Amino acid sequence: MNHIVLYPLLIPILTASIALIAFNNRRLQRWIGVIGSALLLVASSVLLYVVSTDGIQVVQPGNWEAPFGISMVADLFSALMVLVTGLKAFVVSVYALGDMDDERESFGYHPLYQILIFGVIGAFLTGDLFNLYVWFEVMLITSFVLLALGNKKSQLDGAVKYVVINLFSSLIFLSGVGIMYGITGTLNFAAMAEALQGTENTGLVVTASMMFLIAFGIKSAVFPLFFWLPASYHTPPITVTAIFGALLTKVGVYSLVRMFSLIFTQDIGYTHTILLWIAVPTMVVGVLGAASQYDTRKILSFHIVSQIGYMIMGLAFFTKIALAGVIYYILHNILAKTNLFLVAGIANKEVGSYHLSRLGGLYKTNPLLSSLFAISAISLAGLPPLTGFWAKYTVIYAGLEVQEWVVIGFALAVGLMTLFSMTKIWMGAYWSPLPDASRLASDPDFKPVSGNQKAALYIPVAIIALVIVVLGIFGEPFFAILFEAAEQLLDPSIYINAVLNP
Amino acid sequence: MKSVILQTATRLIFPLLLVFSIFMFFRGHNEPGGGFIGGLVGAAAFVLFAIAFGTKVTRELLRIDPRIMVGWGLLFALLSGFISMWAGDAFFTGQWVFPVLFGNELHIGTPLIFDIGVYLVVVGFTLAVIFALEEETN
Amino acid sequence: MEPLLAIVIGVLVALSVYLLLRKNLVRVVIGVVILSNAVNLLIFTLGRLDRGIPPLIAAGEYVPTEAIANPLPQALVLTAIVIGFGLFAYALVLTYRAYTEMGTINVDDMRVAEPAYKGEELPETAVTEGEEK
């Protein structure tokens, strides 16, 4: 029995339970967290290697056969997402060594963080609809606690909105699960897709698909449903914001891609047109919201929304190149977005603010941080030769092929606006001189980072920046995997056969 | 809360509840019961003790921090899965042994270990939450 | 039976939507709970309603010999109830903490994370929020 699929899932929960046992020893907990995440990174790399050489991997925990038991499935798309989650989990757990305060650590930050990763990876690997709901809940409840951990006023305020909206979306998701079970009599993705092939009951299926669109739409913060995100994401410590911004919305996008490529393909002309209509305002409103903000965390939060629009747009085009572009976009966005949040966190430690009106002078005093920011920002804005350019290029190229001129026009304009936002942060925080420098000098509590803390903060950011550069410049072999992943997504029979006829 | 009636009654009920929780736990083998319900009853015993004598005494009685108990519980539950993995089956496949003890054949398997894990998680989680709430209000 | 349950689900959803749209946070949370019960009932109904026969397989058999009630929706609903209960408990504690910290349960007055201002200078809290000390 080949358990390679389960290792990325078991490592975080094992780490979490060991960290819980070491609850009273914070120092030990930290290192357990780092070692666990490092093992996770190794396990997820091995998983991607196995999936890319041997095809889709399926495990049936408890030995219950496929349509009856819960399947854990890793196709290339899942494996890529798991790998980037592993990378993210590792660098953020190193960054947390320098950022997380004692109070939050003593309330169990480390076990919670590992369980959050556990939930995210479970959502990527599951092949069962109800099980997906359970993973979402695992992820949500830990994210609720991480968001409110520390009990600051603004955190509680943000958490109230986040919790209520996300509970609501979970319930919509759950009723969608119920309806799909009523229609097909199964919860297994593969069996469900098979049962729906050539169904005459298209109307009901499309109705159910809209439940999922709303549920995952709220989770991934698409146009009319995103207001909870900029209201809450800037309130917790920057480590938590970075992991939320990078992973949680992307799990929503992953689920949308999975559902609308494997199961809801009956009436593409209808459902995917709706996706396209959602994508454009998501991009535009997100980027306009970012333009109106002056707190770096809020600017970046709005950019999460805007970037989600590109991913949904690629899904709506639904061609091989477009889906490859979507996967690349998700990976690129997880890397670049987290890095920008982490850089903002370092800037806050160095100059003592997140707000552009109080930041400044970093280009002069801290060229290393400036270049790390520049790499991530250029990548996010989509300038060649970094990852953002290739991500946008692929998705837009796919749009040109299906001749959606208006949508492409908007996408290009939004790209320009993204560049504007990044320039705004660059001007405000890096090029302009530091306003009231005496404020920091006179504050006895303020001390710039140094020594071990400095290493813990800068090394993770540098690793991700390096990955962005390498993936951007030597992306060719990587795109071969992406196209294969897109082919697997476009042809549901590969997935169905792998799960039902092993 | 200082109440002589409650404290005297608790001294009697507390051990009964613990025995009952263990009974519920083993009953789950083939009948309604199991780690979850057994754990809730066990937690109820400690909660009753905490109401009668205060959380400080109860924590001393419990000896182990409830949050650490959750960790051990998770570890036990995972262990049951790893045993099936080492036995060469899929994760979480039940593994059984049938030792004969005093002329009775016993059925012992990995689901029992999983249930011990559930029991510990439920007791630990419930107590962690209730102690935290109780200590905040005082 | 199905039409009756459908009406019950509809009434519950209507009730919860009404509560969700209130400004009082406690009512919003109760609205979420009622909605979760409506959804549980929906899953239960969609799993096909049967009278009686417990889903047990007789000793010595490998498959049930007669038609049995569908046990899967019950398992799903049980899981959903447990998850829903946990989330409800969290939401209540959060409401209580929010009330003690901010002194209000009116969601319109909860503007700490996104302070309101009109045209003039940003409030100081919006600028210094989350600063490193």
Summed up:
The complex is a heterotrimer of chains A (502), B (138) and C (133). Chain A is an all-alpha fold.
Structure, described:
The complex is a heterotrimer of chains A (502), B (138) and C (133). Chain A is mainly α and 502 residues long. Chain A has 22 helices and 2 strands. Chain A starts with 6 loop residues before the first helix and ends with a helix. Chain B is mostly helical. In chain B, the strands form 2 sheets. Chain B has a two-stranded antiparallel ribbon. A two-stranded antiparallel ribbon of chain B has the order 2-3. In chain B, helix 1 packs antiparallel against helix 2, helix 2 (35-53) packs parallel to helix 5 (110-137) and helix 4 packs antiparallel against helix 5 (110-137). The radius of gyration of chain B is 17 Å and the shape is elongated. Chain C has 133 residues and is mainly alpha-helical. Chain C has one domain (2-51, 69-113): Helix Hairpins (Orthogonal Bundle). Helices cover 59% and strands 0% of the residues of chain C. Chain C is elongated and about 75 Å long. The chains are: A mainly alpha (502), B mainly alpha (138), C mainly alpha (133). Chains in contact: A-B, A-C.
Which range does the strand content of chain B fall in? 5-15%
CATH fold label of chain C = Helix Hairpins
What's the alpha carbon Rg of chain B, rounded to whole Å? Answer: 17 Å
Number of domains of chain C: 1
What is the element string of chain B, with H for helices and E for strands? Answer: HHHHEEEEH
Number of helices of chain B: 5
* Oligomeric state, counting identical vs distinct chains: heterotrimer
List the helices and strands and how they pair.
The complex is a heterotrimer of chains A (502), B (138) and C (133).
Chain A: H1 7-21, H2 26-54, E1 57-59, E2 72-74, H3 76-99, H4 102-106, H5 109-125, H6 129-148, H7 153-184, H8 189-196, H9 202-220, H10 228-232, H11 238-263, H12 268-291, H13 296-317, H14 320-351, H15 362-365, H16 367-381, H17 387-401, H18 405-431, H19 437-442, H20 451-473, H21 476-490, H22 492-500
Antiparallel strand pairs in A: 1-2
Chain B: H1 4-27, H2 35-53, H3 55-62, H4 66-86, E1 96-97, E2 100-101, E3 104-105, E4 108-109, H5 110-137
Antiparallel strand pairs in B: 1-4, 2-3
Helix pairs in contact in B: 1-2, 2-3, 2-5, 4-5
Chain C: H1 2-20, H2 25-46, H3 71-102, H4 124-128
